[in-house]
Write a structure and sequence with these properties.
Helix content is 91%, strand content 0%. The chain is mainly alpha-helical and 240 residues long. The protein has a domain of 159 residues: Four Helix Bundle (Hemerythrin (Met), subunit A), CATH 1.20.120. It is elongated, with a radius of gyration of 53 Å.
Length: 240
């Protein structure tokens, strides 16, 4: 009887021991699995947290690059506009100079024709005609001086005029020549009344009008050249 009880007790104890060992192994496996999952999840979280700042940095870098590109394009457009304005100004200056040269040639031609007609009248009228010839020849010389003065006056750029004003030295010389022309035209009108031939008087009067017209044109062009604001033009005018 005692042996039977001892055997039963050992069986129960063995079963209990096996059950306890099985539970212990199950808990160990669960812990290992949880640890493995935790270790596996950690790199993923780190990867996400690392990727987010990288993506933000790329976006900021892209935005800055776009700003630089936009600024560069804006600067390029502004430079192109400035170049276009400068080109237009230069083209306008060349066009005005071309027109001025054409008008100057026309005046020279008109004055030359008028002087030639005066010389013919002088040849037909003997002694008094010598006075006409002298005045006519002086008008030719003065006209060349005036055209050269005017060319220098008009060649001054707008930039130079803004700072130092018009070419007052050439303007001053031109005004002296114009005054001389006006005085000689008065003398020519006095001589005209002394001509015996009415046809010569009328023809001489017509040529005098041509000279007066040329002088008036030059005087107007000089006045136009002095218009506009200038920083130190007043000083240049005083010293010229």
């Amino acid at each position: 009887m005692k042996k039977t009880l001892l055997v039963a007790f050992l069986l129960v104890f063995g079963i209990a021991f096996q059950t306890s060992a099985a539970n212990s192994n199950s808990q160990s496996q669960g812990s290992s699995s949880s640890a493995t999952q935790g270790v596996g999840n950690t790199p993923t979280q780190n990867s996400k947290s690392t990727t987010a700042p990288a993506a933000t940095g790329n976006a900021v870098k892209t935005t800055e690059e776009n700003k630089v590109m936009n600024q560069g394009e804006a600067t390029q457009i502004k430079t192109q506009e400035q170049n276009a304005v400068q080109t237009q100004d230069k083209t306008g200056d060349k066009s005005n100079q071309g027109k001025g040269q054409s008008t100057s040639e026309q005046r020279r031609s008109q004055v030359a024709i008028a002087v030639q007609a005066m010389l013919q009248i002088a040849d037909r009228n003997g002694g008094i005609g010598q006075q006409v010839k002298t005045i006519a020849q002086t008008q030719t010389q003065n006209q060349e001086k005036l055209e050269k003065n005017l060319e220098k006056i008009q060649s001054r750029s707008g930039f130079a005029k803004f700072f130092i004003g018009a070419n007052y030295g050439e303007i001053k010389d031109a005004k002296k020549t114009l005054e001389q022309n006006k005085e000689q035209i008065k003398q020519m009108n006095q001589v005209r009344t002394q001509l015996s031939n009415q046809g010569d008087q009328q023809q001489l009067a017509e040529q005098i009008k041509v000279l007066e017209k040329a002088n008036q044109e030059i005087e107007t062009l000089m006045e136009d050249a002095q218009k506009g604001f200038s920083l130190f033009g007043w000083l240049n005018k005083l010293t010229s």
